Amino acid sequence: MKFNTKTIHGGQEHDTAFGAVMPPIYQTSTYAQSTPGGHKGFEYSRTHNPTRAALERAFASLESGKHGLAFGSGLASIDAIIKLLKPGDEVISTNDLYGGTYRLFTKIYERFGVKFHFIGMENATTIEDYINENTKLIWVETPTNPMMNVIDIKKAAQIAKKHNILLAVDNTFATPFLQRPLELGADIVMHSATKYLGGHSDVVMGALVVNDDELAEKLYFIQNASGAICGPQDSFLVLRGLKTLHVRMQRHCENGRKIAKYLSNHPKIEKVYWPGLESHPNHQVAKDQMSDFGGMISFVTKGNDYNEAIKIVENLKIFTLAESLGGVESLAGHPASMTHASIPKEEREKTGVVDSLIRLSVGIEDVDDLIADLKQAIG
Ligand code: P1T
Q1: The domain 246-378 belongs to what CATH superfamily?
Q2: Which of 192, 297, 330 has the most ligand 1 atoms within 8 A of CB, as the residue to mutate?
Q3: Bridge-partner residues for 188, per DSSP?
């Protein structure tokens, strides 16, 4: 089945009771048993729920994996991955990543004795310099949030395999429409399904997909034992969102391309970060591992002026100033004071997250209106 058919049918079966085309919302916490253990495959909704199970199958299908798991947020799904580790274990992570992931790693898991190395991975061979006998996980976000760095997943996977280390890829920015990390050799693919997978800014959710049965079993155990699951209503909404993922992504990419070009030619803009630009340092890797370049764009104005950046995001009218990304509507953010405020200034500035950086999540509105909005806001 091709990807654009999988978004609609992948992992789905019609409801056996009444033939409902969409999976019903099984709004129940528990299931009747005829005798202890005599049930129809469902006992308690933290463990399993039919609506969530339909969504988990859809996630697995889209990411070309065997097993999908849905969580109450993207961070809850990352939390489940880190719970595979024990004190003394080490993780090598990209140094440019979502601020909340950095906060989870440093403020929660360092206290439990897990050590994190945050490094630039634009040259993936660098990863090998940080591997020792305690290294258990490589954490890759690509493209990265918010600097849009691109990391070579195939190379990272070769290194991970050679040293018998797990490779997890946060695929939130790309989505499986543009890039499928498991096909490139990753062990775990993770999503903030809050973003493009849900696609309508109305749900907070996380997703994991893996191929290995034993790894899946460990993650299902953590999902049930820790309990950070999502509810059936949200599962239904994301299932609905997934059905248009391919058409939404096409438009996000088209609009992203036009806006990245517009900003690149703007006399007041210093630098534009979008993997589709030939000037992007890892444009070739992006071309090789992604089918297009997405709708996330970051940029800085000339003079690197904090007040100027704030004025621009305040002046935007169609772009809403807000956290998050990946919905049908365009959003603008100021990473230094919003999504990445939990990363110390000297750390984030090392990766380019300066006070004048603006991040756009380009939506699927008419691109002429979006460009006109940027024009009036930037001046
Ligand atoms: O917000 P949540 O669903 O828990 O997902 C966390 C997360 C994980 N990974 C990436 C790449 C993300 O971008 C996020 C969430 N990011 C935002 C809210 C944001 O505005 O960047």
Answers
A1: Aspartate Aminotransferase, domain 1 (3.90.1150.10)
A2: 192
A3: 168, 210
